[in-house]
From TrEMBL:
Enzyme class: hydrolase
Matching PANTHER family: HISTIDINE BIOSYNTHESIS BIFUNCTIONAL PROTEIN, HISTIDINE BIOSYNTHESIS BIFUNCTIONAL PROTEIN HIS7
Cofactor note: Binds 1 Mg(2+) ion per subunit.
Record-stated family: Belongs to the PRA-CH family.
Alphabetized UniProt keyword annotations: Amino-acid biosynthesis, Cytoplasm, Histidine biosynthesis, Hydrolase, Magnesium, Metal-binding, Zinc
Major localization class: cytoplasm
Reaction catalyzed: 1-(5-phospho-beta-D-ribosyl)-5'-AMP + H2O = 1-(5-phospho-beta-D-ribosyl)-5-[(5-phospho-beta-D-ribosylamino)methylideneamino]imidazole-4-carboxamide
Protein name per its UniProtKB record: Phosphoribosyl-AMP cyclohydrolase
Pathway info: Amino-acid biosynthesis; L-histidine biosynthesis; L-histidine from 5-phospho-alpha-D-ribose 1-diphosphate: step 3/9
Taxonomy, superkingdom: Bacteria
One Pfam family linked to the record: PRA-CH
Ranges where the Phosphoribosyl-AMP cyclohydrolase domain occurs: 48-121
């Protein structure tokens, strides 16, 4: 844990710190990434987890439109740029270690590339895995044939 986040443990309610100082203290992994969890702001539904580098996080904070780092494409990925299913940031918070980001978002349509509202639709139940939701939109309608 960085000294910054250790110091924040004792911070009083409504203390303020320069954003740059906090961004400098984030514990990005060896690839320069941090896990970013997107949660629907009004329902609490966990929609997805993706990765952000510092540039994606700064863009998200500056524009209010959620931007991730695509590990498969090796570039910034603005949620909804091909599907139209955007995420708009309502708030963002780091965990106590500065190594995970939780974002409250307003999601347009499905968050998952499968066309489902949430990426978390495979429930592990005893000896089985059960699909808990159907696609809201056919993925081919969102992205075309892959």
């Amino acid at each position: 844990m960085t000294d910054t986040f250790k110091r924040l443990e004792g911070a009083s309610l409504d203390s303020r710190y320069p954003l740059g100082e906090i961004l400098d203290a984030i514990r990005f992994n060896d690839d320069g990434l941090i896990p970013a969890i997107a949660q629907q702001h009004d329902s609490g539904e966990v929609l997805m987890m993706a990765w952000m580098n510092r540039e994606a996080l700064e863009e998200t904070l500056a524009t209010g439109r959620v931007c991730y780092w695509s590990r498969s494409k090796g570039k910034l990925w603005r949620k909804g740029e091909s599907s139209g299913q955007q995420q708009h940031l309502r708030s963002a918070a780091l965990d106590c270690d500065g190594d995970t980001l939780l974002m409250q978002v307003d999601q347009t349509g499905p968050a998952c590339h499968s066309g489902r509202r949430s990426c978390f639709y495979v429930s592990l139940e005893g000896e089985d895995a059960r699909i808990t939701s159907a696609p809201l939109i056919d993925p081919e309608a969102l992205y075309g044939k892959r």
